[in-house]
Amino acid sequence: MTTLLSPEELEARLRDVGKRRYHSLHPFHKLLHNGQLDFGQVQAWALNRYYYQAMIPVKDSSILARMDDAELRRIWRQRIIDHDGHHEGEGGIARWLKLTDGLGIDRDYVTSLRGLLPATRFAVDAYVHFVREKTLLEAIASSLTEMFSPGIIGERVAGMLKNYDFVSKETLAYFENRLTEAPRDADFALDYVKRNARTPEQQEAAIRALEFKCDVLWVQLDALYFAYVDPKMAYPGAFVPQSSAPPARREA
Ligand SMILES: O=C(O)c1cc(C(=O)O)c2c(n1)C(=O)C(=O)c1cc(C(=O)O)[nH]c1-2
Thiaminase-2/PQQC domain: which residues (predicted)? Predict the structure, then answer.
Protein backbone atom coordinates (compact mmCIF):
# COMPACT_ATOMS: atom_id res chain seq x y z
CA MET A 1 0.00 0.00 0.00
CA THR A 2 1.55 3.28 -1.03
CA THR A 3 -1.28 5.78 -0.71
CA LEU A 4 -2.49 7.21 2.54
CA LEU A 5 -6.08 6.21 3.28
CA SER A 6 -8.53 8.56 4.96
CA PRO A 7 -9.60 7.38 8.46
CA GLU A 8 -12.93 6.28 6.92
CA GLU A 9 -11.18 4.31 4.17
CA LEU A 10 -8.95 2.67 6.75
CA GLU A 11 -12.00 1.68 8.80
CA ALA A 12 -13.62 0.19 5.70
CA ARG A 13 -10.46 -1.86 5.00
CA LEU A 14 -10.41 -3.10 8.59
CA ARG A 15 -14.09 -4.07 8.47
CA ASP A 16 -13.44 -5.88 5.23
CA VAL A 17 -10.88 -8.11 6.99
CA GLY A 18 -13.67 -9.28 9.29
CA LYS A 19 -16.02 -9.97 6.41
CA ARG A 20 -13.42 -12.22 4.80
CA ARG A 21 -11.59 -13.81 7.72
CA TYR A 22 -13.45 -13.60 11.02
CA HIS A 23 -14.00 -16.91 12.86
CA SER A 24 -17.77 -16.60 12.42
CA LEU A 25 -17.10 -18.09 8.96
CA HIS A 26 -15.38 -21.20 10.31
CA PRO A 27 -17.20 -24.54 9.81
CA PHE A 28 -16.66 -25.46 13.48
CA HIS A 29 -18.67 -22.42 14.60
CA LYS A 30 -21.45 -23.22 12.18
CA LEU A 31 -21.68 -26.74 13.68
CA LEU A 32 -21.54 -25.34 17.23
CA HIS A 33 -24.26 -22.78 16.66
CA ASN A 34 -26.54 -25.03 14.62
CA GLY A 35 -26.64 -27.77 17.24
CA GLN A 36 -24.62 -30.20 15.14
CA LEU A 37 -21.98 -30.97 17.76
CA ASP A 38 -22.40 -33.57 20.45
CA PHE A 39 -21.86 -32.99 24.16
CA GLY A 40 -18.23 -34.09 24.14
CA GLN A 41 -17.39 -31.81 21.20
CA VAL A 42 -18.95 -28.82 22.98
CA GLN A 43 -16.94 -29.73 26.08
CA ALA A 44 -13.76 -29.76 23.97
CA TRP A 45 -14.59 -26.28 22.63
CA ALA A 46 -15.17 -24.83 26.12
CA LEU A 47 -12.08 -26.51 27.56
CA ASN A 48 -9.77 -25.25 24.81
CA ARG A 49 -11.22 -21.78 24.75
CA TYR A 50 -10.57 -21.48 28.47
CA TYR A 51 -6.91 -20.89 27.60
CA TYR A 52 -7.81 -17.96 25.31
CA GLN A 53 -9.94 -16.47 28.08
CA ALA A 54 -7.23 -16.98 30.70
CA MET A 55 -4.54 -15.32 28.58
CA ILE A 56 -6.55 -12.27 27.47
CA PRO A 57 -5.68 -10.31 30.65
CA VAL A 58 -2.03 -11.42 30.33
CA LYS A 59 -2.07 -10.01 26.80
CA ASP A 60 -3.76 -6.79 27.97
CA SER A 61 -1.29 -6.42 30.84
CA SER A 62 1.53 -6.53 28.30
CA ILE A 63 -0.17 -3.83 26.25
CA LEU A 64 -0.79 -1.74 29.36
CA ALA A 65 2.88 -1.99 30.33
CA ARG A 66 3.83 -0.47 27.00
CA MET A 67 1.55 2.57 27.31
CA ASP A 68 3.34 5.67 28.52
CA ASP A 69 0.16 7.76 28.69
CA ALA A 70 -1.82 7.57 31.95
CA GLU A 71 -5.08 8.41 30.18
CA LEU A 72 -4.64 5.45 27.83
CA ARG A 73 -3.75 3.15 30.73
CA ARG A 74 -6.84 4.21 32.68
CA ILE A 75 -9.01 3.13 29.77
CA TRP A 76 -7.13 -0.06 28.87
CA ARG A 77 -6.98 -1.36 32.46
CA GLN A 78 -10.75 -1.85 32.42
CA ARG A 79 -10.20 -4.83 30.11
CA ILE A 80 -8.10 -6.55 32.76
CA ILE A 81 -10.75 -5.86 35.42
CA ASP A 82 -13.47 -7.23 33.12
CA HIS A 83 -11.68 -10.57 32.90
CA ASP A 84 -10.09 -10.84 36.36
CA GLY A 85 -12.79 -9.06 38.41
CA HIS A 86 -11.97 -7.18 41.60
CA HIS A 87 -12.27 -10.29 43.75
CA GLU A 88 -11.98 -14.04 43.42
CA GLY A 89 -14.99 -15.56 41.68
CA GLU A 90 -15.75 -12.39 39.68
CA GLY A 91 -14.97 -11.45 36.08
CA GLY A 92 -14.88 -13.14 32.72
CA ILE A 93 -12.48 -15.98 33.55
CA ALA A 94 -14.65 -17.01 36.52
CA ARG A 95 -17.72 -16.81 34.28
CA TRP A 96 -16.03 -19.02 31.69
CA LEU A 97 -15.39 -21.60 34.42
CA LYS A 98 -19.13 -21.55 35.17
CA LEU A 99 -19.56 -22.71 31.59
CA THR A 100 -17.02 -25.53 31.90
CA ASP A 101 -18.59 -26.46 35.30
CA GLY A 102 -22.00 -26.51 33.63
CA LEU A 103 -20.61 -28.85 31.01
CA GLY A 104 -19.39 -31.19 33.73
CA ILE A 105 -15.64 -30.76 33.21
CA ASP A 106 -13.57 -30.82 36.36
CA ARG A 107 -12.28 -27.32 37.17
CA ASP A 108 -8.83 -28.44 38.23
CA TYR A 109 -8.50 -30.33 34.98
CA VAL A 110 -9.58 -27.28 32.95
CA THR A 111 -7.23 -24.86 34.71
CA SER A 112 -4.33 -27.34 34.68
CA LEU A 113 -4.36 -26.98 30.85
CA ARG A 114 -3.43 -30.67 30.62
CA GLY A 115 -6.21 -31.37 28.13
CA LEU A 116 -5.39 -28.52 25.71
CA LEU A 117 -4.69 -29.18 22.07
CA PRO A 118 -1.17 -28.07 21.19
CA ALA A 119 -2.47 -25.71 18.48
CA THR A 120 -4.66 -23.89 21.02
CA ARG A 121 -1.65 -23.21 23.17
CA PHE A 122 0.52 -22.13 20.24
CA ALA A 123 -2.14 -19.82 18.78
CA VAL A 124 -2.95 -18.10 22.05
CA ASP A 125 0.73 -17.75 22.97
CA ALA A 126 1.38 -16.26 19.54
CA TYR A 127 -1.18 -13.53 20.32
CA VAL A 128 0.57 -12.70 23.62
CA HIS A 129 3.97 -12.59 21.91
CA PHE A 130 2.62 -10.48 19.07
CA VAL A 131 1.47 -7.66 21.35
CA ARG A 132 4.84 -7.68 23.13
CA GLU A 133 6.97 -7.63 20.00
CA LYS A 134 5.06 -5.43 17.55
CA THR A 135 4.33 -1.71 17.82
CA LEU A 136 1.68 -0.45 20.22
CA LEU A 137 -0.42 0.50 17.21
CA GLU A 138 -0.30 -3.10 15.91
CA ALA A 139 -1.00 -4.48 19.38
CA ILE A 140 -4.11 -2.31 19.68
CA ALA A 141 -5.19 -3.05 16.10
CA SER A 142 -4.97 -6.78 16.79
CA SER A 143 -7.79 -6.44 19.35
CA LEU A 144 -10.13 -5.12 16.64
CA THR A 145 -11.68 -8.52 16.00
CA GLU A 146 -13.92 -7.37 18.83
CA MET A 147 -15.66 -5.13 16.29
CA PHE A 148 -17.16 -8.31 14.90
CA SER A 149 -17.77 -10.33 18.07
CA PRO A 150 -21.24 -9.05 19.12
CA GLY A 151 -22.70 -10.53 15.92
CA ILE A 152 -21.24 -13.99 16.46
CA ILE A 153 -22.00 -13.95 20.20
CA GLY A 154 -25.67 -13.18 19.52
CA GLU A 155 -25.79 -16.01 17.00
CA ARG A 156 -23.98 -18.40 19.35
CA VAL A 157 -26.11 -17.78 22.44
CA ALA A 158 -29.41 -18.01 20.53
CA GLY A 159 -28.26 -21.09 18.60
CA MET A 160 -26.85 -22.95 21.58
CA LEU A 161 -29.88 -22.26 23.79
CA LYS A 162 -32.19 -23.46 21.06
CA ASN A 163 -30.22 -26.53 20.06
CA TYR A 164 -28.62 -27.98 23.19
CA ASP A 165 -30.56 -28.88 26.30
CA PHE A 166 -27.29 -29.25 28.22
CA VAL A 167 -26.61 -25.47 28.19
CA SER A 168 -28.64 -22.77 29.90
CA LYS A 169 -28.74 -18.98 30.10
CA GLU A 170 -26.78 -19.29 33.36
CA THR A 171 -23.97 -21.41 31.89
CA LEU A 172 -23.70 -19.03 28.90
CA ALA A 173 -23.72 -15.93 31.15
CA TYR A 174 -20.14 -15.16 30.09
CA PHE A 175 -21.37 -13.85 26.78
CA GLU A 176 -23.93 -11.44 28.21
CA ASN A 177 -21.26 -9.09 29.59
CA ARG A 178 -19.28 -9.29 26.36
CA LEU A 179 -22.18 -7.75 24.45
CA THR A 180 -21.56 -4.42 26.21
CA GLU A 181 -17.82 -4.75 26.88
CA ALA A 182 -16.79 -5.65 23.32
CA PRO A 183 -18.40 -2.66 21.52
CA ARG A 184 -17.02 -0.26 24.13
CA ASP A 185 -13.51 -1.72 23.74
CA ALA A 186 -13.69 -1.93 19.96
CA ASP A 187 -14.93 1.67 19.59
CA PHE A 188 -11.98 2.92 21.61
CA ALA A 189 -9.42 0.76 19.77
CA LEU A 190 -10.81 1.69 16.35
CA ASP A 191 -10.67 5.38 17.15
CA TYR A 192 -7.08 4.96 18.39
CA VAL A 193 -6.01 3.13 15.23
CA LYS A 194 -7.70 5.68 12.94
CA ARG A 195 -5.98 8.57 14.70
CA ASN A 196 -2.55 6.96 15.08
CA ALA A 197 -2.02 5.13 11.79
CA ARG A 198 -0.71 8.21 10.01
CA THR A 199 1.42 6.74 7.23
CA PRO A 200 0.60 4.16 4.55
CA GLU A 201 3.04 1.78 6.25
CA GLN A 202 1.33 2.15 9.62
CA GLN A 203 -2.08 1.64 8.05
CA GLU A 204 -0.87 -1.49 6.28
CA ALA A 205 0.62 -2.77 9.55
CA ALA A 206 -2.71 -2.22 11.33
CA ILE A 207 -4.59 -4.18 8.65
CA ARG A 208 -1.99 -6.99 8.83
CA ALA A 209 -2.30 -7.05 12.63
CA LEU A 210 -6.04 -7.60 12.35
CA GLU A 211 -5.48 -10.34 9.77
CA PHE A 212 -2.99 -11.99 12.11
CA LYS A 213 -5.55 -11.92 14.92
CA CYS A 214 -8.20 -13.47 12.68
CA ASP A 215 -5.67 -16.26 12.09
CA VAL A 216 -5.19 -16.70 15.84
CA LEU A 217 -8.93 -17.28 16.22
CA TRP A 218 -9.25 -19.38 13.06
CA VAL A 219 -6.52 -21.94 13.83
CA GLN A 220 -8.02 -22.63 17.24
CA LEU A 221 -11.15 -23.82 15.44
CA ASP A 222 -9.12 -25.74 12.84
CA ALA A 223 -7.50 -27.62 15.70
CA LEU A 224 -10.87 -28.43 17.28
CA TYR A 225 -12.28 -29.52 13.94
CA PHE A 226 -9.45 -31.91 13.14
CA ALA A 227 -9.24 -33.32 16.65
CA TYR A 228 -12.93 -33.70 17.50
CA VAL A 229 -15.09 -33.44 14.36
CA ASP A 230 -13.03 -35.17 11.70
CA PRO A 231 -10.26 -36.84 13.67
CA LYS A 232 -7.62 -38.53 11.59
CA MET A 233 -5.48 -39.26 14.63
CA ALA A 234 -5.64 -38.87 18.40
CA TYR A 235 -3.74 -35.99 19.97
CA PRO A 236 -1.57 -37.55 22.66
CA GLY A 237 -2.57 -36.30 26.08
CA ALA A 238 -5.42 -34.05 24.92
CA PHE A 239 -8.90 -34.15 26.46
CA VAL A 240 -10.90 -37.20 25.39
CA PRO A 241 -14.70 -36.87 25.67
CA GLN A 242 -16.16 -39.74 27.69
CA SER A 243 -19.57 -39.54 26.11
CA SER A 244 -21.33 -37.90 23.18
CA ALA A 245 -24.40 -37.28 25.39
CA PRO A 246 -24.56 -35.47 28.73
CA PRO A 247 -25.16 -37.52 31.84
CA ALA A 248 -28.84 -38.05 32.67
CA ARG A 249 -30.14 -35.23 34.85
CA ARG A 250 -30.89 -36.17 38.43
CA GLU A 251 -34.19 -34.90 39.81
CA ALA A 252 -33.58 -32.38 42.62
O1 LIG B 1 -16.89 -15.19 21.43
C2 LIG B 1 -16.18 -14.74 20.53
O3 LIG B 1 -16.31 -15.07 19.34
C4 LIG B 1 -15.12 -13.78 20.94
C5 LIG B 1 -14.28 -13.18 20.01
C6 LIG B 1 -13.27 -12.32 20.44
C7 LIG B 1 -12.46 -11.73 19.38
O8 LIG B 1 -13.01 -11.49 18.30
O9 LIG B 1 -11.27 -11.53 19.54
C10 LIG B 1 -13.11 -12.06 21.82
C11 LIG B 1 -14.04 -12.68 22.68
N12 LIG B 1 -15.00 -13.51 22.24
C13 LIG B 1 -13.99 -12.47 24.10
O14 LIG B 1 -14.81 -13.00 24.84
C15 LIG B 1 -12.98 -11.64 24.66
O16 LIG B 1 -12.93 -11.46 25.87
C17 LIG B 1 -12.04 -11.05 23.79
C18 LIG B 1 -10.95 -10.24 24.06
C19 LIG B 1 -10.37 -10.02 22.85
C20 LIG B 1 -9.14 -9.27 22.56
O21 LIG B 1 -8.58 -9.46 21.49
O22 LIG B 1 -8.68 -8.49 23.42
N23 LIG B 1 -11.08 -10.63 21.86
C24 LIG B 1 -12.11 -11.27 22.41
Answer: 12-222
